[in-house]
Specification:
Chain lengths: ~475, ~240
């Protein structure tokens, strides 16, 4: 197979950025070595890719080798006694929880979709709705095997290689290729969680209720009505959840099965989920989304307010998987997301500014999600002791440049407040603003490790070029 | 291709002004470098690269397509605007001159657009624009081979479109009327002459919409519909 035979269009999950790449999909370590060798021989960089769930250009680089590791998907070892699992990087989050739930174990950190691969999740050091109590996924990894750009491989342990361990995880695949990871799963006594839903009339209430809940509940997540303004600005709905204690679930063995966790196949009992996005698409515009946001808030703040109920873990965790291909509602331009992390003291003012900026630019976000976070020990960490606000925006033909410039406007107050950004979600952030969020010496350390492990910069990505590599 | 003057230059300047990264391909290196410098100075960043190449060197095209894609980070739009129309006397039968026209206007286009179409078809996206001519709509006595080369180019573009449109690739045939360029300057009997910049503006609009065939400006469609419908025995007597 020639290099040209491997040419494919590769795009970010949001479908707003992409490029042609020479895609390798190895199913064994030999295939990984072949891709590295080919890239080095041709003098072109390698971008690492898993399930392609990063919204922007993190898992692609135009005219480069795209090393798609999703076929390296074997579970190498599973110990149901200790909850320790050894995985190849292409194992999906879905495959992982489906395998372990029957033994009473659940991934300690999950994303809003079960599609990502473990390798990708560690590369981006993902967080979930339980970032405050559990941190990022990297904090539940104990060791990994790292294939480096020079073809050598080594095991990196959190205990023995403390610096390198914390350098590699979260460095968006720029320091090496994780070819095996060991994770510690979380013991659960039921396949269900107890969920509490409540509403908040404004941004201040959203933040204070979130903060109050962070130590009492395992999972805390908020949704904000992005179209509300004035005294209603930032109003929204909150969902808190906790795992059931031993004995709380009378039929735990039934709920602790993959089948019991399956998301519903149909909506309203009849409509196939796969068709749902086609019904939502006509509403994917400003008036339509204004109605959707208003309706969701009104329902959540009346009949749904202050409700407590039980829900399967998968159903609570993987909201993004309820409607397959829902992102297609944003076609043809796709979507971008801007997620900023702001210290607690400044969060209300910054998020207020951001919501107003969206209105001033006449580009309101169609979906906004609020979470509580804490710092973590990784070199390229995106977290702070504070909150994050994730804002989804449609990319509309003819308004792309305006949207990109609005992202800069959204990012500036975050930088001024000492906040940070999450590369997994980013597609449009200017590099100068991203770099200015790091402490002095932090990027210098990254550059030093990169120069040591990958002096020829074989591993690159569109995102790394844009945000990190100034030349 | 054909970016060192005329419509090709105007297209490159407009695309770069709109924020696109462009590769300027043409034979005259000095001109290319001047245009590249002007574009990059105006943008205050590197938006244009210059690739000196004679489209008659058809064998070089596949490698250059690869090189340009790599340097630009992809190929979204490829425009073949290279063209040759030397003065030909009405009683002149100069095969060398005719061959040059065929090589520049047709063979070069095929050599460039074949690998471009193959690449875009594989990726399922992209737009190819061929700058043909109203001259390709009829065989005119004053310049038989120019008309032939453009008619052949139109047919090639149509066939290409029929191959790749279903794969997501747009192929746009542009048929300009009289455009004020070095190729037409000083020639007699021209009318409705538009500037190269105006032609470029219209062409880019058509390319964005992915139209099949566009006359530039549009009124030429009416004229050429009439011209095409004139029976040969009358057309031959009109002296066009």
């Amino acid at each position: 197979m020639t290099l040209n035979d491997r040419l494919e269009w590769v795009e970010g999950w949001g479908m707003a950025v992409g490029g042609a790449g020479y895609v390798f999909r190895p199913s064994d370590p030999g295939g990984v070595a072949e891709a590295i060798e080919t890239a080095r021989g041709e003098g072109i960089p390698i971008a690492l890719r898993g399930a392609g769930c990063s919204y922007g250009d993190a898992a692609l680089r135009p005219e480069s080798v795209v090393l798609d590791l999703s076929n390296l998907s074997r579970v190498l070892a599973w110990d149901p006694e200790t909850g320790t699992v050894d995985l190849e990087p292409g194992v999906s989050l879905a495959a992982l929880w489906r395998m372990t739930i029957g033994d009473g174990w659940w991934p300690p950190v999950v994303t809003g979709t079960m599609e990502p691969t473990i390798g990708g999740m560690l590369a981006m050091n993902v967080h979930g709705k339980n970032n405050w109590p559990r941190g990022t996924l990297g904090e539940h990894c104990t060791e990994f095997d790292l294939a480096m750009a020079n073809g050598e491989s080594r095991t990196v342990s959190r205990k023995k290689d403390i610096d390198l361990f914390h350098d590699v995880i979260g460095s968006f695949g720029q320091l090496g290729i994780i070819t095996r990871a060991r994770l510690q799963m979380k013991k659960v006594h039921s396949g269900q969680v107890e969920v509490k839903a409540l509403s908040a009339p404004d941004l201040g209430a959203m933040l204070s209720l979130t903060d109050d809940a962070k130590d009492k509940w395992e999972y805390v997540v908020g949704w904000i009505d992005t179209f509300a303004r004035g005294r209603n600005l930032g109003r929204g709905l909150l969902h808190f959840a906790r795992h059931l204690e031993e004995g709380e679930d009378a039929d735990a063995s039934a709920s602790l099965s993959a089948e019991a966790q399956d998301l519903p196949a149909n909506f309203f009992g009849v409509m196939p989920k796969s068709l749902m996005w086609r019904f939502l698409k006509p509403m994917t515009n400003r008036p339509g989304m204004r109605c959707v946001n208003l309706g969701k808030y009104l329902v959540g703040s009346t009949v749904g307010d202050e409700k407590t109920y039980r829900q399967p873990l998968a159903g609570f965790s993987f909201l993004l998987d309820y409607v397959p291909n829902w992102k297609n509602i944003y076609l043809p331009g796709g979507l971008i997301q801007h997620q900023s992390f702001v210290p607690a003291a400044s969060a209300e003012q910054v998020f207020r500014d951001q919501l107003e900026i969206c209105h001033e630019h006449k580009m309101p976000s169609f979906l906004a999600v609020l979470k509580r976070h804490r710092p973590d020990p990784f070199l390229m960490s995106h977290a702070v002791d504070g909150y994050s606000l994730a804002l989804d925006f449609p990319v509309i033909r003819g308004r792309r440049e305006k949207l990109w410039s609005m992202v800069r406007a959204l990012a500036e107050p975050v930088v001024a407040a000492g906040g940070r950004f999450y590369p997994a979600k980013d597609a449009a952030l200017p590099g100068d603003l991203y770099r200015s969020t790091f402490r002095e010496g932090q990027l210098g350390r990254f550059a030093g490790v990169k120069a040591k492990l990958d002096p020829d910069r074989v591993l690159r990505s569109g995102l790394a070029d844009r945000l990190i590599y100034e030349d | 291709m054909g970016a060192s003057s005329g419509i090709g230059e105007a297209l490159a300047r407009r695309l770069a002004a709109d924020g696109a990264r462009v590769a300027l391909v043409a034979r005259r290196e000095e001109e290319l470098r001047r245009i590249m410098a002007e574009i990059n100075d105006a943008a205050d960043e590197e938006r244009a690269i210059a690739v000196a190449h004679d489209v008659r060197a058809a064998d070089e095209a596949p490698e250059l397509v690869q090189e340009i894609a790599s340097r630009l980070g992809g190929l979204d739009l490829v425009i073949y605007a290279a063209g040759a129309m030397p003065a030909v006397a009405v009683d002149e039968y100069d095969t060398a001159k005719d061959r040059e026209m065929l090589e520049v206007n047709l063979v070069g286009a095929v050599a460039w657009l074949n690998p471009v179409a193959e690449r875009m078809a594989r990726l399922g996206r992209g737009t190819i624009v061929g700058i043909g001519s109203v001259a390709g709509d009829r065989g005119r006595a004053p310049n038989p081979v120019y008309c032939t080369s453009k008619a052949g180019f139109h047919a090639y573009l149509e066939a290409l479109r029929n191959r790749v449109a279903k794969l997501g690739v747009k192929v746009v045939t542009i048929k300009p009327g009289f455009v004020d360029t070095a190729m037409t300057r000083g020639k007699e009997g021209l009318f409705w002459v538009i500037s190269a910049d105006r032609a470029a503006e219209i062409i880019l609009k058509k390319a964005r919409r992915g139209v099949v065939t566009a006359y530039v400006p549009a009124r030429w469609r009416v004229v050429m519909t009439i011209v095409r419908s004139i029976p040969s025995f009358i057309f031959s007597k009109l002296g066009f």
